[in-house]
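We emphasize that the prediction below concerns an isolated chain of 286 residues; any contacts that depend on oligomerization or on bound cofactors are therefore not represented. The input was used exactly as deposited, without trimming of termini.
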Amino acid sequence: MTQKEKLIVVIIVLVAVLALGIVNYQRFKSSADPGQGETVHGRTSSSDSGSVSSETSQSSASSSASETKTSAPDFKMCDTDGNEMKLSDFLGTPVVLNFWTSWCTYCKQEMPDYDSAYAKYGDKVQFIMLNAVTQEQTLSAGSDFIDQSEYTFPVFYDVDGNGINQYSVRGFPFSVFIDADGYITATQYGRIDADTLETDLAKIAATAKADAPEKILSNSRASSSRAESEAAASSSAASSKATSSKAASSSKAASSSQAAASSKAVSSSKAASGASSGTSASSSGK
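Result of the prediction step, given as a token string:
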């Protein structure tokens, strides 16, 4: 084999290796990059700690043609006050579960849409904005981010990673839509757009039950912080009003005092004038 042929072979091998590398990279990116936003309906997930659904997810032999439903795996979490609860506590209420972290750009980009959706569907759907604590750089990173934000949706914390393990979360953000019976209707990796969010929320909201458990209607920390801000603003406004009123009263009192002084001066002037006239008259009489 000549030197030229060897060079051609080497080039072919390098091109093949490069092509293989590109293919593998694309495969890895589609499975790990949250920006891909792939939606998977009825995604199955193994669970050793039970599921949320109120009935089995397998179809009977007589109805094998019907759609097989996937139960939402149950797991433990904590609310903003540190109270422990389980996903199954909300059985009977539609749930949208969103896994997020404070360092995730896509997570932060979709939060305004979630907050707007919460304002519309918060009375029908339980929003669980779940911070993956074990994936944060510090334990308080997620709560610190929420404390500094003005979002009103309910925030929860996956303290021990139980949630991301049960749902085999492989990227952030990850959204799961669960109907009132505890079945997954849709899931999505990556940032969800407002239209898709609206469609999936409307679908699960329609399954809400009249005797559903009480929903957590707000982010207690955000609400508390906002209430404190409003109270401070109200107090400041009241103080400013009181100061203005006091200043107005002082000004009015000063004006009254000045008017009284002027009136007194006029009276004194008149009296002096009268006395002078009397003296002149007396002198003329003499």
